[in-house]
Amino acid sequence: MNVNADLHIHSKYSMATSNKMDVPTIAREAAKKGINLVGTGDCLHAKWLDQVKRLPESNGIFSLNNTSFVLTVEIEGAHRVHHLLIVPSISKAEELRERFMKHSRDIDADGRPTVKLGGAEIAEYARDAGAMIGPCHAFTPWTAMYAYHDSLEDCYQDLAGYISFVELGLSADASYADRISELHRLTFLTNSDAHSPWPNKLAREFNRFEMPDITFGDLEKAILRKNGCKPVLNVGMFPEEGKYNESACIRCFKRYTLQECLIKKWKCTCGARIKKGVRDRVNELADLPLAEHPDHRPEYLHLIPLAEIIALALGHSSPYTKTVQSAWNELIKKPGSEIAVLVDADITSLGGDPRIVSAIRAFQEGKVIITPGGGGKYGSIELPVGGDRDVELECYTGGTEETPAQRSLFDYADE
User: Fold this and answer.
1) 121 within a domain of the structure (yes/no)
2) Are 102 and 12 within one domain?
């Protein structure tokens, strides 16, 4: 069976996260999106773990209505490097909590705890608990493995061989990561890092796995590509949409080439710092001139959330207008979910406003115009010239892995 999974989100117990990130709301909104399996996030937080414990459990999977959950947590270690752990059971989550508690001052205050440990020590704890581990949003410049390390071994040392996946993050895709040959053995994950449950946040990036059933064991086999289980699709945003795709000033957002950055010693003309972009960082790390995808690498489909596509098509600057929400509800009614509309349905049979159908097709075919982001400012997208719309939509996606989340209309429209 095909299983759509978003394995990295946060609960209401993480900093700067919507208080609507509770189990019932996440389950309901995941079903609307077409997500079968969601990472709980924050599974070392006592209050959140207590809520997850109340759900029916089987083979490491917790269920509410038609949505399944697997225990996950994001941990910030040395140098602010973030790691994603996928945990097999409540007892192992409690074991990890006890061990990490000795190295953390905020494990009860923040769902994404900070620990005074390096990557190798965190990986050792994960291995001892039978948990899977990999770097979160591996290329972003503030809190990523490749922001502070030049290789997996540099970060995880003797435990580098235990790492089973790498999460690409919003500012990278497989064409970036597969220029680094040390990553070829690893499964790539594309997750939302959602801080609110609404359709343009939850599962804005997701994975599709082929696995016989939704169990922790089958998920582990899919990520490790064993016994016929495997990833079959990555869906994510265009890397250029990310806040840090290009090197740019963190104050005025003026973009620079890498050579210009070196000449200016990473100081903008306005006096502020120039932040190195993901594209330039990949160019530094890459040992291949072009991406070489291993045979196991699935297709990477570039999309943005359906509500944002509708807003572009109809000329609305926000995906939260009543018109956009009405169109969204109408579109998903027959196929049953947003993912069915964007990935699986025959768009010619969708009906509805032809401007929206045309916009969906433009995204599926990669025929959109993107102004890259940089320095902390998201990129922007336009539909191609000749379409019905010339409205530009800033690719604002709320709080992400790249910087602390911001409270705004886009994060908490209904709060």
Assistant:
1) yes
2) yes
- Mark whether 61 and 149 lie in a shared domain: yes
Give domain status of residue 131, yes or no: yes
Q: CA 40 to CA 60: how far, in whole Å?
A: 12
Q: Do residue 230 and residue 323 come from a single domain? A: no
Residue 296 located in a structural domain: no
On the question of pLDDT at 312 being above 80, the answer is yes
Total tally of structural domains belonging to the chain: 2
Same domain for 203 and 313? no
Does residue 266 belong to any structural domain of this protein?
A: no
Query: 327 and 207 share a domain?
Result: no
Q: Is residue 323 domain-shared with residue 227, that is, in the same domain?
A: no
Cα distance between residue 15 and residue 349, in whole Å: 43
Structural domain of 172: 2-240
Q: Which of 362, 351, 233 is nearest to 308 (CA)?
A: 362
Predicted pLDDT at 398: 39
pTM > 0.85: yes or no: yes
Contacts of 231 (CB under 8 A, 6+ apart): 187, 188, 207, 208, 209, 210, 222, 223, 225, 296, 298
Encoded tokens for 376: 């902390």
Q: How many residues does the chain have?
A: 415
pLDDT digits (tens, 9 = 90+) for 73-97: 999 999 999 999 999 999 999 999 9
What residues contact residue 69 under an 8 Å CB cut-off, 6+ apart? 23, 27, 37, 38, 39, 40, 52, 55, 61, 62, 63
Distance CA 366, CA 348 (A): 17
